[in-house]
UniProtKB/TrEMBL annotation:
<dbReference type="InterPro" id="IPR018517">
    <property type="entry name" value="tRNA_hU_synthase_CS"/>
</dbReference>
<protein>
    <recommendedName>
        <fullName>tRNA-dihydrouridine synthase</fullName>
        <ecNumber>1.3.1.-</ecNumber>
    </recommendedName>
</protein>
<keyword id="KW-0547">Nucleotide-binding</keyword>
<feature type="binding site">
    <location>
        <begin position="235"/>
        <end position="236"/>
    </location>
    <ligand>
        <name>FMN</name>
    </ligand>
</feature>
<keyword id="KW-0288">FMN</keyword>
<dbReference type="GO" id="GO:0050660">
    <property type="term" value="F:flavin adenine dinucleotide binding"/>
</dbReference>
<feature type="binding site">
    <location>
        <position position="147"/>
    </location>
    <ligand>
        <name>FMN</name>
    </ligand>
</feature>
<feature type="active site" description="Proton donor">
    <location>
        <position position="108"/>
    </location>
</feature>
<dbReference type="InterPro" id="IPR024036">
    <property type="entry name" value="tRNA-dHydroUridine_Synthase_C"/>
</dbReference>
<keyword id="KW-0820">tRNA-binding</keyword>
<feature type="binding site">
    <location>
        <position position="175"/>
    </location>
    <ligand>
        <name>FMN</name>
    </ligand>
</feature>
<feature type="domain" description="DUS-like FMN-binding">
    <location>
        <begin position="22"/>
        <end position="318"/>
    </location>
</feature>
<dbReference type="InterPro" id="IPR001269">
    <property type="entry name" value="DUS_fam"/>
</dbReference>
<comment type="function">
    <text>Catalyzes the synthesis of 5,6-dihydrouridine (D), a modified base found in the D-loop of most tRNAs, via the reduction of the C5-C6 double bond in target uridines.</text>
</comment>
<keyword id="KW-0819">tRNA processing</keyword>
<keyword id="KW-0285">Flavoprotein</keyword>
<keyword id="KW-0521">NADP</keyword>
Amino acid sequence: MENFFAQPINIGNLKLKNRIFLAPLAGVSDIPFRRICQEFGAGLTYVEMLSANAVNYVNEKTLRMRARHPSEEILGVQVTGPTPEDLAKAVERLDQENFDTIDINMGCPVKKVVKANCGSAITKDTEYMSEVVAAVRAVTSKPLSTKFRIGFDRVNVEDSSLCSVKNNVEMFTIHGRTAQQNYSDAVDFAKIADGINAGKGYKSDVVTVGNGDIFDYQSALRMHEQTGCDAIMISRGSLGNPWIFREILQGKPVHPTVEEWLDVILRQLQYHEEHYGDNVPTTRMARKYFVWYAKGFPGCKTFRNQLQQVNSLKEARTLFKGFAATLPKTLVRYQGLSFKEAQHIKHGYDPKYDMDRKLDRGVGTECME
């Protein structure tokens, strides 16, 4: 029987090759990382979450974040904003740009974002939520989606789903925690299913996406079987592990050899240099990827510490090649264990904490502009 996740799917008139999407991770989902995930099979990727205010003020950094590489066949954009008017104005701009689909972020729980009435703050009030989606729907004919959590400080996932489908979105994504919960709380599959059933009950052809705690094929399958979602969205599970897309597509564990691991890292370094150049600021921005990739082999703690000090991509290449040369060629990364188990990650661990927010593009920084 064909792997469910490998089957194509349509979002409105947009045809996707499979049902495995990469989340629009702030500070992470840039061109080099997206290209790697696309090469491993991601059926849909997004630029990093954008602020409507930054789009409307023609913020220079936000313009750079909207770049698209010629190799990217399908690309979406996600935006959040403080008012329906601000969001609609921003989406009018984005609608004219080179994106295939547009998503409204109503799920980001970061305090600065919420304080600005963006992200998950939108879901506090059902009527307001509906106004937001209706305002955006009125200014774009591109496939439109929403991404939200099962609630803010209380569960209202069915309301969020209905607000979305009643305003004619083609897709919605549900993350299985409230905005007030953290990663120590398990994803609530039953609540995701409630949201999906509410949306499907009103509009049967809406595409539904499950998100949260997907680290391998088994957790992807569990998300689908327990929620009935049409597709899945990968977030933390992709950090340092773009192989997750191949694993889910193949339906079996994928643990790269040293050679395969090094090849992917060097390729992302190449893409990073092509896009940003090799200089101190962009190397510091890339350190988070180095740290994520540097896990899964014996003796990697010291190696990770060295990577956190590099100031050039050339230096990073040298370190990665040198470390790989110390490992047996037959060694397999995370051999015999799932990605999550092998990292000894407690349930609440978030790899994004490895990002240096003083040097990197932080979540939500544009919302206050």
